[in-house]
Amino acid sequence: MKDMLLDFFENTVNSSKLKKSRIKRKITLNEVSAKTGIPYTTLKRYEDGETKKIPFEAVKKISEVYGTNYDAYYAWTTFPLFGSLSGILISLFFGISVPIAYTGSVLGSILGVLGMLGGKKLFESYSIKKENIKKIIYNSLAKEEQEEYDNFLLISKTLLKTNKILNEKEQNEVDKLLFATFMLHKIREKNKERIINFEEAEVFSEQENNN
Fold it and tell me: Which of 31, 17, 10, 52 lies closest to 198 in space, CA to CA?
């Protein structure tokens, strides 16, 4: 099942989004063809969704013409869990971090933009070492932030009587959810106005403000 999801995320491109990006920039398919070397008919099949698996190099060339991130056109941006920052954090801590498998640092860049200092470096480390991402992020927090989370966790689990009601597996799941909630609040606290619609976004960096 995981291999099927991975194949879907790695090879499925949002064709309508490709078309929207071109139209937004008032560029014709002939112009895109001239700049990328990709035949007009091939580009049209991409935009019409007739070609199910668009070659990575083709997506990269097209995104360079538009000044966008190629990662923004892949299927992960349309997946419910990846539609919001909270969904990404929850899925990440539960091991459903498919985009990282083929981009290495996309989510790191996103969280870096959102205010998580060193976010890109953290996710590159996760991608390379395959370490526990929750542990990596927790260790990256300042001592005061770690204490804040520890207190948040203790208070939450005490009020919910987690240790008395849930089994060990369920408690571990609660820990992941609470950590995702904590991180979401910390990120939003630092960037109250910064909200990315991952399905619509074309870039995941500061250049987004200029497009």
Answer: 17
Q: Could you report the per-residue pLDDT of 94-110, keeping only the tens digit for each?
A: 766 555 434 444 555 55
- The CA distance from 168 to 129, in Å, is 27
The b/e string for 148-180 (b: 16+ C-beta within 10 A; e otherwise) is ebeeebeebbeeeebeeeeeeeeeeebbbebbb
Sign of CA dihedral 206, 210, 103, 111: positive
Task: Write the DSSP symbol of residue 53.
Answer: B
Tokens, residue 42: 């091939």
How many CA atoms are closer than 13 Å to the CA of 64, on its beta-carbon side? 10
> What is the average pLDDT across 72-94?
76
∠ CA 67-68-70, rounded to 5°: 130
The two three-digit tokens of residue 184, written as one number: 């979401």
Segment 15-56, tens digit of pLDDT:
999 999 999 999 999 999 999 999 999 999 999 999 978 998
Structure tokens at 202: 């074309």
> Is 46:15 a contact under the CB 8 Å cutoff?
yes
Q: What is the DSSP-derived secondary structure letter of residue 73?
A: G
Alpha-carbon distance 90 to 92, whole Å? 5
